[in-house]
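Supplementary Note 3. Input sequence used for the single-chain structure prediction.
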Amino acid sequence: MGFINDLNQGKAMEELVHKYLTTHTQLFTKLMKTTRSVGKFSDYDYLYSFSIEVKNDKYKSDNFCFEYYNPVSDKFSGIWASKADFIVYVTDSKIIFFDREELMMELLFAQKLDRKLTGYKHRERVGDGNANIILFKKSYILDNFKSIKHRVDLDLT
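The predicted structure, written as discrete structure tokens, is reproduced below.
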């Protein structure tokens, strides 16, 4: 796919979430001034009276993938490095709003549960070698995680 294509696809998903938020303000009564992040890598994608970071599920698998560490730079990454209030996953059929701090706690706890139930997997140096990730079954997270604060079914046909 390449970096530029991934970047463009990510920006399109950010715009999709932004459009949803700005047209459904009754769900987000604290929605105020909107600021678009600038720069190569920032702490969030959009800042309302809360901040969000949008993650695009480009592989359309049965798993959620969470990046947590960059072994090349020896730093936390992904949701562990984000300062956003909400992590927003866009899948092929849903927009899912997670409370970031609650999500991190649930992910740490779920790693200790039965792997057949959760689908937990750990992978190191994936992609271009600069990401360690954890994977969980989407069905497990969607059915069990209390960090999900809002979800929207999409019709992308």
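Residues 3-23 form the longest helix (21 residues). The helical segments are 3-23, 100-110, 115-118, 138-144.
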